[in-house]
Inverse folding.
């Protein structure tokens, strides 16, 4: 019985070792493929960042209302505040997109 157990243990060890070697080979091949993909894309110029989304009508209206309130709620200047709000939000969006732009050569 003891001899049978020793044989089973040897077989189990051999199977485990084979699986470990196979896993190492698969892992090495995967790393090789990944490295090859990174090398190919390493010198590719990244795409230009997307143009910033313009502010929505609702965002502009909310900001215009805030500006109007801050100015003391004057009458007849709604278009002025709307245009000012639109300009502020557009500039803010442009600056925000410039800050999040990825570096071209991070090295």
């Amino acid at each position: 019985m003891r001899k049978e157990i020793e044989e089973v243990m040897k077989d189990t060890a051999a199977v485990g070792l084979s699986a470990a070697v196979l896993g190492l080979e698969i892992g090495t091949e995967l790393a090789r493929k990944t490295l090859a993909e990174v090398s190919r894309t390493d010198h590719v110029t990244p795409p230009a960042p997307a143009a910033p989304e313009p502010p929505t009508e609702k965002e502009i209206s909310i900001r215009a209302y805030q500006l109007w309130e801050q100015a003391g709620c004057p009458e007849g200047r709604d278009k002025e505040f709307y245009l000012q709000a639109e300009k502020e939000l557009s500039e803010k969006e442009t600056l925000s997109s410039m800050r999040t732009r990825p570096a071209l050569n991070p090295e």
